[in-house]
Amino acid sequence: MTRSSRFRPTRAGIVNLWDYRDQEFSFADGRLVLRGPNGSGKTKALEVLYPFVLDGRIEPRRLNPFAGEERTMKSNLLYRGQDSAHSYVWMEFGRGRADDPECVTVGIGMRATRSVDKVTRWYFVVDGRVGVDFSLLGDDDRPLTKKQLAEQIGSDALVDRPIDYRAAIDARMFGLGAERYDQLITLVLTLRRPQLAKNLDPKGLSRALSDGLRPLDDHLVLDAARSFSDMEEVGRALEGIAEADRAATSFLDVYGRYLAVQARTDVDQVSRRLDAVDHAVTAVFAARALQDRRRAEREAAELRFDEADRALDRALTDQQTLQRSSAYEGKQQLDDLADAVRRLQISTQQQAEKARRARRPSPVAERTPTPRWSEPGRWPPSSPGRGRADGRRGRGGDRVDRPARRRTRRSHHHGRARPRGGARRGRPGGPRGRAAGRPRDRRSCPCRAGGGPRP
């Protein structure tokens, strides 16, 4: 057993035996020192406690360290001359932590009567502590009888034979076995003698010490004998082991260098991989940052798209509102008028071209004198321009629209036909447009100044 798990004696006590009324002894780390003058009871305490409390045998030669037979256990019980007496001797063992130890108490109860030579004994092995978990004295301060003790600790903890008592102690605390337990008790009795060196018997002491040793296992003895007989083979095996050790040492030297080189290569490879991992992590972080920026830009674009979509919806709504308004209908009418003006412009250009071709003089016309109406400021009698301004049939019988005639006349003056005023820009003509689209004085026209015929 290890030191922490081994039981050690912690207390011992004697109740109503010899001159002890109720005496308790305390052990220090399993040891007890008894000191006092001669006749104070040191030997008597050793006699009735150790090893009597461990084996339960009351032969005088085992009790008295001086091997005397004059003092019996009955005389110790009836020391004060009483007719009968009850007595107890006990010892407490403990192990474990000091604040919460595991305690076992062993003890022997005895009863002696002057008329009977035999001393009645009963033995107990119980978990607990005297004076804490149970008591050996009654309320009247007298030792308990066997029956009274059984009521306190239980009848299962009591035995009547010493051999059963020793077996119970060994099973509960030591686990040595009956034979070895008896050998140790005998060794204790031998070493307990106060004057061991006097009349020393070396052979007896050697025998006692040998008996106190732990017996060897038969298998160990057989193994030792076989080893001695095979010593030569063991020597050869030892040489082989030494050679193998030298070879293993040489191999380990070479293999160690190989492992160092391989480890250095692996470390370099791991370093490169770690660098690659660092670069990859940096790239991942950059990609994540770029992704975050792109996500933010996308969200902003989606917001702008939503805003533009809402603006488009508002514009479409405004367009529909405008299309339903009267101003838009007037715009449509103006566009229709602009288309009509363009068609009239094309027609006017065609008529102007025909008029130019018609004005070209022939050889016969050059010899003909100029009529009076060709002078500046006069119109021929049958000229289309003499018709009414509202477009009705004139004197010459032709129906000509006044705006078209004016545009034709302007195209004759300026070389091309174009709508008057703002009509050439796609807008309806007005007073401002007419003022800007024709000369202020027709007489300032170079055609009038040259005296050419009017169209």
Which helices and strands appear, and what pairs or packs with what?
Layout: E1 8-17, E2 20-26, H1 42-49, H2 52-55, H3 60-63, H4 73-77, E3 84-95, E4 102-113, E5 116-127, H5 146-153, E6 158-159, H6 162-174, H7 178-191, H8 202-212, H9 218-229, H10 231-323, H11 326-359, H12 363-367, H13 402-414, H14 431-437, H15 446-449
Helix pairs in contact: 7-8, 11-13
- According to DSSP, the number of beta strands is 6
Total helix count?
Answer: 15
Low-confidence stretches: 382-455
- What's the mean pLDDT score? 78
Shape: elongated
Taking the alpha carbons of the first and last residues, their distance comes to 149 Å
Features:
6 strands, 455 residues, alpha+beta, 12% strand, 15 helices, single chain, six-stranded antiparallel β-sheet
Description:
- This protein is of the alpha+beta class.
- It is 52% helix and 12% strand.
- A 6-stranded antiparallel β-sheet has the order 2-1-3-4-5-6.
- Strand 3 and strand 4 (102-113) form a beta hairpin.
- The radius of gyration is 73 Å and the shape is elongated.
- Residues 382-455 have low confidence and may be disordered.
Summary?
With about 450 residues, the protein is an alpha+beta fold.
